[in-house]
Specification:
Blueprint lengths: L1 H19 L8 E10 L10 E7 L5 E6 L4 E7 L19 E8 L2 E7 L4 E10 L7 E9 L11 H6 L21 E6 L9 E2 L2 E2 H18 L3 E4 L9 H10 L4 E6 L11 E6 L6 H17 L9 H31 L4 E9 L11 E5 L6 H7 L2 H30 L1
């Protein structure tokens, strides 16, 4: 009961904590450059619609549907709707009801009742049009049959972009060696997001190639491998965690080779979840890694469920030390293999793919495409093979240690 009391105390203090924190100026809505429109003639049936909101600055947001009645819900980070009437939005009469406003510190919500079940066909944030400053959020929805009407499950499912609980078998108790360790490999970027680029070199293609080589070595060593992508497709960042969880992965490794201004960084580095990471290079990388999901319409910066925040932090008290342990094994094996690392090889960052509370997770920057030495390493077959072998050995040692600790915890 002690932890439950702690949760309740934290929840009671939450509004005050959130309101006292410093934050940037809020975005506002320009109704003269915003609208709701419908396609085709009104024949008394639901029609495709497009919602356009022009904002004073880009913001993270999340889109989902609810039923009873059918509703489109859009949660925005850092928008001030005060002084702006939803009823004044051009095209408002196309839907039964429309409302918006602040629903918790730092978050605002738009709710649009719909004339029937719909599906989201487009969600994009781009520079404002028509000479306006700021950003344009464009959402296109189309009517669908009831069986194709996908609504949000619960707070945790929406937070992580997960299947509903009925669709995914819960993770088994912490692994103790009864089955092969299952590793989720996540080649960064892909599709419309090539990642860092230097000339004809793209981070997305390079990481996919390395992931395939690492998969082969891991499989020969007796591990099971789950890939978040096997080709040049874009997978939303938090969907990558969904894939890992649905496949009951024991360890999540995201692979990257980013870019920073010349001289800012070189060498391999390992990142773990730390929302307070504040060094400039880490912030730049976090912005680069998450930018594609912002454009795709996904909020990557938090949750709309205060209890979920607290409970996930409680889960991380057990998971995070396991991530730290893996990072230590990895540094040791890379040193043995003679792989050059960053002067601070293990670091914290607010990368979205590291937010999973229940799977030990790391993001490995194999090097930086902007550094000539790193670039040469990334194309050197011998370096790639030694790095893959060292990572495989680190996974093996960590798996043995983690299983042994799990047995002790159960006694």
């Amino acid at each position: 009961m002690r932890w439950l009391c702690a949760v309740l105390l934290l929840l009671l203090a939450w509004p005050a904590l959130a309101d006292n924190g410093g934050r940037s100026a809020l975005a506002t809505v320009d109704l003269t450059q915003s609208s709701l429109t419908a396609e085709g003639r009104d024949r008394g049936k639901p029609r495709p619609m497009e919602l356009r909101l022009t904002l004073s600055q880009p913001v993270p947001y999340r889109v989902y549907f609810l039923d009873g009645p059918p509703r489109l819900v859009v949660d925005f980070r850092e928008i001030d709707f005060s002084g702006t009437e939803a009823e004044a939005l051009p095209g408002r009469d196309l839907v039964p009801a429309l409302r918006w406003g602040r629903f918790r510190p730092g978050w605002s919500r738009l709710v649009m009742e719909l004339p029937g079940p719909y599906a989201l066909r487009l969600a994009v944030q781009s520079p404002a049009e028509g000479g306006a400053r700021g950003a344009l959020v464009k959402l296109r929805i189309e009517p669908v049959g009831q069986k194709d009407f996908v609504t949000r499950g619960n707070a945790l499912s929406a937070l992580w972009d997960l299947p509903t609980p009925a669709d995914v078998t819960a993770l088994p108790p912490r692994r103790t060696g009864e089955r092969p360790l299952r590793v989720a490999l996540d080649p960064g970027h892909g599709g419309h997001d090539p990642g860092a680029q230097v000339g004809a070199i793209s981070e997305a293609a390079l990481m996919l190639s390395f992931a395939r080589e690492l998969t082969e070595i891991l499989t020969r060593a007796g591990f099971e491998v789950v890939a978040t992508r096997n080709d040049d497709n874009f997978i939303p960042l938090e969907r990558r965690m969904t894939i890992a969880r649905a496949k009951q992965a024991d360890l999540f490794i995201s692979l990257h080779a980013d870019a920073l201004p010349a001289g800012e960084a070189a060498g391999l580095s390992i990142y773990m979840w730390n929302p307070q990471a504040d060094d400039r290079a880490t912030r730049e990388l976090a912005m680069r890694h998450d930018r594609a999901d912002l454009l795709a319409g996904l909020d990557l910066a938090g949750t709309d469920d205060q209890l979920a925040d607290v409970l996930m932090d409680l889960v991380r008290t057990e998971t995070h030390p396991r991530s730290e342990a893996f990072a230590k094994f990895t540094v040791s094996e890379l040193n043995r293999a003679g792989i050059a690392m960053h002067r601070t090889p293990v670091r914290g960052a607010a990368f979205s793919v590291l937010k999973s509370p229940d799977i030990p997770s790391v993001l490995i920057e194999l090097g930086f495409l902007t550094d000539a030495g790193d670039r040469a390493n990334l194309f050197d077959p011998d370096w790639r093979a030694r790095t893959a072998q060292a990572l495989t050995q680190a996974i093996s040692l960590w798996a043995q240690d983690d299983a042994a600790r799990a047995v002790l915890l159960r006694k």
